[in-house]
Amino acid sequence: MRAGRVILILTCLVVAGLGAWFALAQWDVANRVATVFSALGAVAAVGVAIWAALRSNTGNTVRASRTGDATARGDGSANTGVRVSKATGTVRADRTGKASASDGGSANTGVDG
Fold first, then answer.
1. Residues facing 79 on adjacent strands
2. What's the pLDDT at 107?
3. What is the DSSP letter of 80?
4. How far is it, in rounded angstroms, from Cα 38 to Cα 50?
């Protein structure tokens, strides 16, 4: 399970636990109700802030897996992996097929960039 989901689940459990405890604590004054809602909102805001920080965009993930074979001839290009011009995240190639080139062509079967 991803860290962001764990934080959200824990936040929901804490908010539910506090809500149940506050419900059993006899709400006799309207000020207590306002305090309860403020506390629940604060806990939820902290949980959502942590969740949002963990979900920040760190780049894209590009992956090639279990690709077939490719052959290039002449000025052609054979690619069974990943070709990128600018990588801003994770680039991965596993179990790619066989790439072959002849007569001046180019071949890539892994990560090229």
1. 108
2. 80
3. S
4. 18
Q: Among 110, 111, 83, which Cα is nearest to 97's?
A: 110
Question: What is the rounded distance in angstroms from the CA atom of residue 14 to the CA atom of residue 46?
Answer: 11
Query: What percent of the chain shows pLDDT beyond 90?
Result: 7
Separation CA 83–CA 73 (nearest Å): 18
Tens of pLDDT, residue by residue over 12-64, are: 998 888 777 767 776 665 567 668 888 888 999 999 888 888 876 666 777 78
Residues 6+ away with beta carbon under 8 Å from 77: 101, 105, 106, 107, 108
Tell the residue number behind the tokens 């066989």, with chain if given: 98
Torsion (CA) 65, 71, 72, 78 in degrees, nearest 10: 0
Q: Which residues pair with 107 in a beta bridge?
A: 78
Between CA 60 and CA 101 the distance in angstroms is: 30
Q: What separation in angstroms does the CA of 23 have from each of 14, 37, 39, 41? A: 14, 11, 13, 16
